[in-house]
Request: fold
Amino acid sequence: MRVRAIGIALAMAAGMTGCAGNGPRSILGKDKLAIGVTADQPGLGFRFPDGTYKGFDVDVATYVAGRLGVSKKNITFRTVTSSQREKVLQTGKVDLVLATYSISAERKTKVAFGGPYYVAHQDILVRRSDTSVKNVRDLAGRRLCQVTGSLSWQRVTAERKVPARLVPAGSYGECLTKLRNGTLDAISTDDLILAGFAAQQPQAVRIVNVPFSDERYGVGVRLEDVDGCEAVNKAVTEMYQDGTAGALLGKWFGSSGLHLTNTVPQFEGCS
Amino acid sequence: MPARIRALAVLAVLVVAGMFAVAGLAVQDARDGLRVIGHDAGPQVVATGDLYFALSDMDAQLADVLLIGREQNLGKGRAEALKLYDQRRSEANRALLQGSKLAGNDPAEQRTAQSMLDALGRYERLAGQALQLDEQQNHAAGPPGPEVTALYRQATDLMKLDALPKAYNLTLDNGTTVRRTYESKHSSVLAGRVWVVLAGGVLIIVLVALQAYLAVHFRRLINPGLAVATVGVAALAVVAVGLLTSEAGHLQKAKYDGFDSVLSLSRARAISNNANADESRYLLDPGRADTYEQVYLDKSQEILFVPAGNLDTYYAQLDRRLAAHTGFMGFYGTEARHVTLPGQRAAVDAMLSGYQRVQQDDARIRALAGAGGRHEAIVVRTGTATGDFDRYDQALVSLTAIHQKAFEGAIRGGDHGLDGWDLGLPGAALAIAVLILAGVRPRLSEFR
Reply:
C-alpha cells in the first residue's frame, strides 16, 4: 500500500498523470460529522428546549453515521431551514443533510443525493372543521402556506396549476400556527410532516388523505463526494436489510395510519 | 577485486528481480482491472438492466391490457399485449434464476435474489387475479372497475416498491464496483510505469558501472554479455512502459467511451420504460392520476433535464433546447456532450428526436384526457404513442450497442495486449540475469 502511494507520488512528480483533483474532503474517513436536520417537524426533525434533536430523520442520520464509522457522540446536529439546504452543504457548514429533503433534478445540479431513504407523498392538512377540501384542485382560491425553499407549494401552483393564494411563511411550524389562527386555510406538504402535526393537535387539524406525489427523501451530500454518496447508499441498504428502517418507521409513524413501506427504495445513483 | 565484481553482479541480478517484480505487479493490476470491469461487474450491469426492463415491462403490459378492456381493435389488442406480458414474465424469471446462480455464496446478494423471486411470485398472483376479474367485467376501454383497480394497485406497488428498486440498486452497485476498480487499477498501472523506468534506470547504471569496472581492470573494451544485457534491459523497459501505457489506455477507453455510457443509458432505459408505463397508469387509474403525472415529469427530468415546473413548460423547453442542440442535462445531456465514437452523433440525434416525439405524444394524450376525451387519449396511447415509443427505445438500444461495442473492443484489446506476458516477462528477466552472470563469470574465473 505504501509502495503504491510512493509510486503515485512519484508519478505525479514526474508529471505522468493528469490532475489529482483536490476537492473538499469526503465524508469518508471523518471522525466527526455535522448533520443538518429540521428543528420544527415533529416526528422527523424536532429540536427540544434542551438542545437535543429527535425524529425519524435524526435516527436515520445516526444510523448512517454509525455505518460510516462515526458514533453518536461525534455527531453534531445543526438546524437547517428549507432554503439553506444546498448552501450549507456547498460551504461545508454541514457534511450531510437529512431534512425531509426531496430529490429533484434541479437540486441535483447543486448537491448529490444518497438514498432516497424513504419515499413520502404530498398531502393536504386543513382545520378539522373544514370539510370542503377533498383533493388538490379544491385548493383553488384558498390561502395555502408557502415555505421559502420548499418544493411543496410549487407542486400545487406550478405543477398541478391550481391557483391557490400563497401566504409566505418561514417554516412549516409557522404554517401550523397560521392554519390554527385562521390566517391560512391549508398546508400542503409531505404526509410524514403532516402526520407529525396532526398527532400534535388531533382536535384542531386533520389530513385530507389524498396523496398526489412521490417525495423521495434523499441524504444531501456534497456534489463531488461520489465515494461518500455511495457509502450512504450502502448504509441505507443495510438499514432496510437488518430491519432498522422498519422499526424506525413503526416507532415514529406507526400510529399515524399512514401506509408505510418497509422495503429499500430505488436509489437515485451518485454520479 | 573479485569480491567487488561479485557484489556488483549480485546487485545487478537483484535489481533485475526488482524490475521483474514491479513490472509483474503492474501487469497484474491491469489484468485485475480488465477482469472486474470487462468480465464481471461490467457485464453484470447489462444483465441487471435487462432484468429491470423485463420486470418493468411486465407491469407496463399488464396496465395496457387492463386499459384496453374488451376493445380488441385498440393498438396491438388484448391478446397481443397478454402475449408480451407472458414473454416478459419468462424473461424476468430467467434473469432472476440466472442472477441467483451468479450470486454464488454472497449472502447479501442471495437474499436480494431470493426476495425478488418472492416478490415476483406475489406479483404474478395479483396480476392473475386482476386479469381474471377484468375479463369477467368485460369493460370498455378505460379505467376498469374498482376491484380490478384495487388489485392492480397492489400489483404495481409491489413492483414499484419492492422488486424494481432491488434490480436498479444492483445495477448501481455494479457501477460502483467498476468505478472503484477503475480508479485504483488505472492509477496503479500508471504508477507501475514509473517504477519500471526507475528500476530499469538503476539497472542500466549498475550494468554500465560493472562494464566500466571490468574495462578499467581487465583492459577489455567491452563485455559482450553485459552489453547485451544492458540493451535488453533498455528494450524491456521500453516495451513494458509501452504495454502499460496501452493497457491504461484500454482501461480508460473501456470506462469512458464504453462503460459509463452503457451504465447511464441502461439506467435511462429503465426509467424511460417505467415513465412510459406511468402514462398508461395515468389513464388507467384516475384516482392516482396526479401522482402518476408528477412521477412522469420527475422521471422525464432525470432522463433529460430542462428547467420546468410542470409538464407544459417541459415540452416547450424540450423542443426549444433540442432545436438549439444545447442547454439540457440529465443522462442525455451528458451523452450528447460526450461524443467520441464513429456513428455516435447520428445515433444520439436519432434517440433525441425519438424522445422528443414520445414527449409530443404525451402532450397530446394529456391534453385529450384533460379535455374529457379519454377514449381518444387511449386510442393515441395504444396506437401512435406505442409505435413512437418502440422506435425511440430501438434508437436507444442502438446507441447503447455502439458503446457496448467500444467497451468490448477495448477490453479485448487489453486482454490481447497481456497475452504472453506471463511467460515473456519472467523469460526476459531470466535471460538478462543469465547474460549478466555469463558476462562476469569468465572474469571471476581468472582469479581461481
